[in-house]
Each structure stands twice: as structure tokens, then as C-alpha cells.
Specification:
Pfam families: MR_MLE_C, MR_MLE_N
Helix content: 25-40%
Structural class: alpha/beta
Strand content: 5-15%
Radius of gyration: 20 Å
Order of helices and strands: EEEHHHHEHHEHEHEHEHEHEEHEE
GO molecular function, one term: lyase activity
CATH topology of the largest domain: TIM Barrel
Distance between the termini: 33 Å
Number of domains: 2
Strand order of the largest sheet: 5-6-7-8-9
Keywords: Lyase
Shape: globular
Organism: Rotaria sordida
Protein name: Mandelate racemase/muconate lactonizing enzyme C-terminal domain-containing protein
CATH architecture of the largest domain: Alpha-Beta Barrel
Largest sheet: 5 strands, parallel
Length: about 350
């Protein structure tokens, strides 16, 4: 089991089997990649020597066997390992992962990206330069005006969603959402910090704009109350954080029973994206797939977007060929840190 910290802030895992089969995964927590690397090394003590095809057995052992469960570090390490094991199994059987999860339900997958940000490189610096601290009431009207201007300038055939990134209190979110109620918005993401199901349900009940959340929730147990209470219209599990491909499929099935859509979170690298596309291919209540990269940075053959869609992948495993020369050329220390923002009075502001 070999790991590579690669620019801009990702961690790739390569698992090589005794028969030469290679599986790739992306176990990472943004800003804590070195910590996740240590967790994967601990998992390796158990995993090396095992049959990689027994994915569910390994998932249960790794997740439950450490006594302390859940949390971003363990589940992200487990997620990347699990992705690599599915990649191995798919290659062993010469089928894509979606074939092993019930088969595809669509022929192409709807994608969405970030507006006004470069698809590669140090996008955080660019973002920080334009950031406004929306918790300050005096900027509310400017935010409203900018959103209206943005929506007016974009072709109406193109959907626009807004990410609040958990920066607002529930009261502030309700005020902003009320001000843009009549703007054509596809959904609003993370209007409050994750875990506050009551606030999310109140916000959802106060607007006709669909509410989305879930990128910072881990495993089906943390998604359970959110789904059971139908607190949001869209859940956003991250395949590199929530427990992996099969765990995300279980979460999606729970959501399907409550008529909740799934839009997997993925501001990560091409291996995480490939894993997400396997989920999208076989999930009936899938909505759209976030992406930062299409793999031009580290894949031999990147994904191709045509009119906002990519074709369902058909190669075995995760459906990608990682370019190890590019990976080794992109190695860095893994010391990317989460940006720290401050309000004008010097107090901490949510990123």
C-alpha cells in the first residue's frame, strides 16, 4: 500500500495485490491529509495479507474494530481504501464497479462545476480575494444584488446553485434566502453547519428553493436523522469521506425511500471523481455530480464533458488509468492547510 501526496491538496492510495492487480483510491481530508495518511498506514497492518475481494468484511472490521468509530479521519481513510478494493474487484472480474452494484440506470451523468474559479491550481487564493463575510448584516443587500446580477447574466438553460458553506447562522440564512426567493436557483448548499437537523428542517420549510447538505457527514448513521426527518431535498455524501462507494450507495438508498435526491460532493481529485461516477451510474435518485478536475492532471485518459454530461464509464474497476509519471511529478509534502478567515473585529470566520 503506497501513498502519494499530490498537488494541489490530494492524497492518492495505490494497493498492489500479489497477482499484480492494482487498485487506486483517494483517502483524504482537506487540510489533514498527513493525518489520514497515518490512519491508512494503521489500516494496512490489518489489510495486508487479506483477500481484497471481501470488501464488506474489511469495511466492517476496519470501521467497527477500532472501538472508536466515525469521524473525518477514520472514515476518510476507510473510504479511500474501500475505493481501491472496488477497483481491484472490478479489474479482477473485468467489469466496472457499477455492474457489481446492480448495473447502470443511465447512459450519461450530469456534471456541474464551480463558477469563476480555475479548474486546477491554487483556487483557494483566488477565492479568498473575493470573499465577503456574509454574517455581517450590512453586506446582505450587496449579496442579494450580486446573486440577481449573476443569475441574469447566465443563460436560463443553465442551472445555478449557491453554496453558503456553513458560514451563516440559521437566522442569517433565512434572511438571505428570503431575499432571493424569486431568483431562479437550483439549490442552496449548506445554509448552516452540518449536524443541525432542526435548523435545516426549519430553513427547508421556509423556502421553495431546495436545500442540500451532507459533505461533512460520515456513514449512514450520521445521515439517518437528516433523511428520516426529510430535512433537506438533496443529500451530498462525499465518496472520499462518507465511508466509500458502497456506503454512499446505502445512504442513497435510504434517501430514495424519502424522495431525496443525491448530488455527491467532490472538490477532490480524479480518483474520487471516478468513484463518484460509479455511484452516479447505478443510483436512481442521483441528481448531478460536482467536479473540480476531469483528470487532465493525473489520468492517462481524462473524462470528457459533452453538453454538461459525461458518459457512464465502461472500463473495469473505477474505469480510469492513473498516469504514475504525472502522479510522481505532482508530489509535494502534503502540507496544505485549511484557509483561516477573520472578521473585521479579528474574530474567527467560517471558511
Amino acid at each position: 500500500m503506497e501513498m502519494f501526496h499530490v498537488k494541489p491538496r490530494w492524497l492518492f492510495l495505490k494497493i498492489t495485490c500479489d497477482d499484480g492487480t492494482i487498485g487506486w483510491g483517494e483517502p483524504v481530508v482537506e487540510g489533514r491529509a498527513q493525518t489520514v495518511e497515518a490512519a491508512v498506514k494503521e489500516i494496512a497492518r490489518y489489510l495486508i495479507g487479506q483477500d481484497p475481494r471481501d470488501i464488506e468484511k474489511h469495511w466492517q472490521t476496519i470501521y467497527r474494530g477500532s472501538f472508536y468509530r466515525n469521524g473525518p479521519i477514520l472514515t476518510s481513510a476507510l473510504s479511500g481504501v474501500e475505493q481501491a478494493l472496488w477497483d481491484i474487484l472490478g479489474k479482477h472480474l473485468n467489469v466496472p464497479v457499477w455492474r457489481l452494484l446492480g448495473g447502470k440506470v443511465r447512459d450519461r451523468i450530469r456534471m456541474y462545476g464551480w463558477l469563476s474559479l480555475e479548474p486546477t491550481g491554487d483556487y483557494i487564493d483566488l477565492y479568498a480575494k473575493t470573499m465577503q463575510m456574509i454574517e455581517q448584516p450590512h453586506v446582505l443587500h450587496a449579496i442579494r444584488d450580486n446573486i440577481i446580477l449573476l443569475r441574469d447574466k447566465i443563460d436560463k438553460r443553465i442551472d445555478v446553485a449557491l453554496d453558503f458553506h456553513g458560514r451563516c447562522t440559521p437566522a442569517m440564512s433565512r434572511r438571505i434566502i428570503h431575499m432571493i426567493e424569486n431568483v431562479d436557483i437550483m439549490f442552496i448548499e449548506e445554509p448552516v453547519l452540518p449536524g443541525d437537523v432542526t435548523a435545516l428542517k426549519q430553513i427547508s420549510s421556509s423556502t421553495s428553493i431546495p436545500i442540500a447538505t451532507g459533505e461533512r457527514l460520515f456513514t449512514r448513521w450520521q445521515f439517518n436523522d437528516l433523511i428520516e426527518q426529510q430535512a433537506v431535498a438533496i443529500i451530498q455524501p462525499d465518496i472520499s469521506h462518507c465511508g466509500g462507494i458502497f456506503e454512499a450507495r446505502k445512504i442513497a438508498s435510504m434517501a430514495e425511500a424519502r424522495n431525496i435526491a443525491v448530488a455527491p460532493h467532490c472538490p477532490l481529485g480524479p480518483i474520487a471523481l471516478a468513484s463518484s461516477l460509479q455511484l452516479a451510474s447505478c443510483t436512481p435518485n442521483f441528481l448531478c455530480q460536482e467536479h473540480l478536475t476531469l483528470g487532465h492532471d493525473y489520468l492517462k485518459v481524462p473524462f470528457q464533458v459533452k453538453e454538461g454530461y459525461v458518459d457512464v464509464p465502461h472500463l473495469p474497476g473505477l474505469g480510469i488509468e492513473v498516469d504514475e509519471e504525472k502522479v510522481r511529478a505532482g508530489i509535494f509534502a502534503g502540507d496544505w492547510d485549511t484557509p483561516q478567515f477573520r472578521l473585521k473585529d479579528g474574530s474567527f470566520a467560517e471558511w
